[in-house]
Design brief:
439 residues, globular
């Protein structure tokens, strides 16, 4: 999810959006996804699942982010886990982030062997010049079948072009319209019956492009196929009929049940968040507006400028200083106002990756600790990514009623050096900070 190439400050923040659902829980460690099972970089045994620091339950994988660093020789993936117990929601100790790395092995290019093409002489094709594709077993242009049965491995001409099946063609059957003294050979009609619905009955298909079941090269011999019977539904006037109508879903108004869901305690063993891919794009700092919205904005700015000029002239032409002041939202929460305003520029985002952009995270309130250090090497930990509350409504766990998680925002502070040990190869924990929404 990170930028490649040479690191440069001031790059846009990378945003994550909900993409299509995954068919499997696992894929590859370079996949950006929500839920499922962790795709560890290590090719040996998977590391143990981290446990919740509050209740001791096994944590569920919330998101997996592939985040290689610019100029690094390592693949690098972050795995963020969370606890589904309601009493552990909105607590930093109930979350965990593991960082795993593996050395990037250069791909070995295998050169394909070049085959030597022997040039052919101009007269080499004459050896097959008399081969016009004649075959004594082929059917003639009149549609008559040869008495020589074709090879069982070759497709049946009936299944390809239509007509009568060869299994029912018998020259000893009685012929219809056969008269004495006339050299007339009509098709036997003893196998044609419009009322015949027995299993295995084979009717003549007049459409040469469609062959009935049980015919052709792929049809095994000796098998019978039941043709689906044609049915029709006819509405008759004056008869009573039952009409099924889907009733609308009614919201749960059982208040005690809602409180029970909020205080649930379930075992997290075997549970997984339903996985889906994450679509990534750069943040757009200017919101997209239609022509009508743009015209209203320009009209508002023009009116504001005119009012400012009139106000300045009424005060005796005092033009010293800027009369505009910083606007404060009516609710007084500047952090929440900034949080919502920035997210609204790119609706639908569930994740923000800001390590390469060196931008500050979106906060719901000031952080209690300004600086954080890596527990492994002692280097400073810097902001890498954050999960947004818009992700909460997208999370689903099969067999679990209600939302599995609840949070305001989840911040991941990663080691600035991205320290790693090739000898152990064990994932390393990063700092996770959780802020709850103000109620």
């Amino acid at each position: 999810m990170a930028y490649g190439g040479v690191h440069a400050a001031g790059r846009p923040v990378l945003l994550g959006f909900v993409d299509e659902f995954m068919e499997t829980d696992r894929e590859y460690f370079t996949t950006n996804k929500i839920g499922g099972s962790a795709d560890w970089c290590t090719s040996v045994q998977d590391p143990p699942v981290p446990l919740c620091g509050e209740c001791g339950s096994a944590l569920l994988l919330v998101t997996q982010i592939y985040a290689p660093l610019s100029g690094s020789l390592y693949h690098r993936t972050l795995y963020i886990f969370g606890c589904i117990q309601t009493r552990c929601w909105n607590k930093s100790s109930s979350w965990a982030c593991l960082r795993s790395q593996v050395l990037d092995k250069p791909e070995v290019k295998v050169e394909a062997k070049k085959e030597t093409i022997v040039p052919m002489a101009a007269t080499d094709w004459l050896g097959d010049a008399d081969d016009w594709g004649d075959d004594p077993n082929d059917n003639d242009d009149n549609g008559n079948f040869s008495s020589i049965s074709p090879d069982t491995s070759s497709p049946s001409p009936v299944g390809a072009v239509g007509g009568f099946p060869t299994a029912n063609f018998n020259l000893n059957d009685k012929l219809i319209n056969a008269t004495v003294g006339e050299d007339t050979l009509d098709i036997p009609m003893n196998n044609l019956n419009i009322k015949d619905t027995s299993v295995g009955s084979n009717l003549n298909d007049t459409n040469a492009n469609i062959s009935p079941p049980g015919r052709g090269a792929s049809a095994p011999s000796g098998t019978s196929v039941t043709a689906p019977a044609a049915t029709a539904e006819i509405e008759m006037e004056g008869e009573d009929s039952n009409i099924a109508i889907d009733s609308p879903l009614v919201g749960n108004t059982n208040i005690p049940h809602l409180f029970a869901t909020a205080s649930r305690e379930v075992s997290s063993m075997g549970l997984k968040i339903e996985p889906f891919y994450i679509w990534v794009q750069e943040e757009s700092l200017t919101p997209k507006m239609s022509e009508h919205e743009m015209s209203l904005l320009m009209e508002y700015k023009a009116k504001e400028a005119l009012d400012h000029v009139v106000e300045s002239s009424g005060k005796g032409g005092n033009t010293g200083g800027d009369t505009y002041e910083k606007t404060v939202p009516s609710h007084g929460d500047e952090f929440f106002h900034k949080f919502i305003s920035i997210i609204q520029n790119n609706p639908g985002q569930i994740l923000r990756y800001g390590r390469d952009s060196q931008s500050a995270p979106l906060l719901l309130r000031p952080l209690k600790e300004e600086t954080h250090t890596c527990t492994h090497c002692g280097a400073d930990s810097i902001f890498e990514l954050q999960l947004l509350p818009s992700l909460v409504t997208q999370l689903r766990v099969a067999g679990l009623e209600g939302l599995p998680l609840e949070f305001g925002t989840v911040l991941v502070m990663a080691c600035q050096r991205s320290c790693w040990s090739d000898t152990s190869g064990q994932p390393r924990f990063e700092k996770v900070l959780v802020q709850a929404e103000l109620m």
